[in-house]
Amino acid sequence: LLFRCIPFKYREERSNAGFGRILEVLMISSPSGPGLLFPKGGWENDETVEEAAVREAVEEAGVRGDLMGFLGVYPFKSKTHQDEFCPEGLCKASMFALLVKEELNSWPEQSTRNRKWLPITEAAENCRHAWMRDALLQSFVKWHDENTMSKGKDR
């Protein structure tokens, strides 16, 4: 079982109609190939699932924030997790929404990863894996719309 979070924030934007908020999610590059990902990893023996998700956001993406909601569990195939016990490489990822409060100037994996803030539609186009796109467009967007005051106006 792995843990991923979808880090998000709001960017203020000025238009002819006044000021508005644009919802953005943070994606990261991977040294193993093209496309963008959400931060992920496993957990240590002395931490909870939630603590692991927050730690991975710091290590891989250089952001700190508050876990705001559980988005679901997504099955996927992993080439790096194939072994004699699981030749198919079947894995599951628990997904969380993370409201970013701080972007770090330096973080453990910054030499191998780039981070990029994207609006939802652009993030969906850049997801490396279809299951991640589903998590973003179905679970995260639904969770966001149900749990924000603006009820969908921040996209």
Describe this structure in words.
There is one protein chain. The chain has helices at 49-61, 120-126, 130-147; strands spanning 2-15, 18-30, 33-37, 40-41, 63-77, 90-103, 115-119. The protein is of the alpha+beta class and 155 residues long. A hairpin with a 2-residue loop joins strand 2 and strand 3. Helix 2 (120-126) packs antiparallel against helix 3.
Structure, briefly:
The protein has about 160 residues and is an alpha+beta fold. The chain is about 25% helix and about 45% strand.
Topology summary:
Layout: E1 2-15, E2 18-30, E3 33-37, E4 40-41, H1 49-61, E5 63-77, E6 90-103, E7 115-119, H2 120-126, H3 130-147
Parallel strand pairs: 1-6
Antiparallel strand pairs: 1-2, 1-4, 2-3, 2-7, 5-6
Helix pairs in contact: 2-3
Low-confidence stretches: 151-155
Give the overall form: globular
* Helix residue percentage: 10-25%
Beta fraction of the residues?
35-45%
Describe the main β-sheet briefly. Answer: 7 strands, mixed
Output the keywords:
alpha+beta; single chain; 3 helices; 7-stranded mixed beta sheet; 155 residues
